[in-house]
């Protein structure tokens, strides 16, 4: 049961970072390489507590659907999304936003998951899945960081 944890320092206020992370539209932009798109539940705008979104994406050459629900949220501090249905046995994904200054935020992303198929899933984690998920999450978070910082730069111009 791998836990992927990463932190990013973002030169933007906490609320801007919080909203970027729960934006369905930015999620689709940040995951363009897997052709991820929202096909059910909340399909655009900002997702909120108790709401679900169903994603369709291509991972490892296979079209897959994944439904997640926002199970915890304290705006603008953190939110949690958890898998309702999909390829994983389970996952719990925490997004936390800690203000460093008025215009700088530490974003902490913790993805705790269990692969299906018992020992075969653990082998897949070890061989490729954990590294794949780490790259996927890093790419998404770097995109969100850039968008949030660009938004603030545009407001300052």
From TrEMBL:
SUPFAM superfamilies xref list: Bet v1-like
Gene3D superfamilies per record: 3.30.530.20
UniProt-listed CDD domains: SRPBCC_3 (cd07820)
InterPro entries: START-like_dom_sf (IPR023393)
Protein name: Cell division protein
